[in-house]
Known about the structure:
The protein is mostly helical. It contains 8 helices and no strands. Helix 5 (98-104) crosses helix 6 (110-121).
Amino acid sequence: YMQAFYYCMCQAMTPYVEQQDAVRGTRKKEIFDRFIEVLRENYTSQRAIGFYADRLCMTPKYLSQVVHSVSGRHAGDWIRDYVILEAKALLKSGQYSVQQVSDMLNFANQSFFGAYFKRSVGCSPSAYRDTQAADMRTGGTLFPIRSAARMFAKA
Length: 155
């Protein structure tokens, strides 16, 4: 009789458990959406996961876990890709020097910006800018936007 009782209880609880899983998934999606909103407002000045976690009133570890579970990408990747896409757009416009872009994106100095950019893109900011300027004249694309492809691949 105990097995039958246990089976009946499991059957009765299944809808409740599924509903709770859906609520948890919705909550995680809400946190992710708020993270993206705060990121869009602050990516030019803040690159630390801790800043975004503080703004969302949670620990950096929990924020990272939620962002990864919803998007399949790490919070740091989202932050980096927003910063790099903005840097690429500013450099490609030809209106700003590397130093100005570095200042606009709140890097301590041009050297830090150069290292950050090169680690993400594979070339220096000035090489990217020069290549994009030459590219605009020839109509081709020598440096595809790798981070944009990664950014939207799993989003």
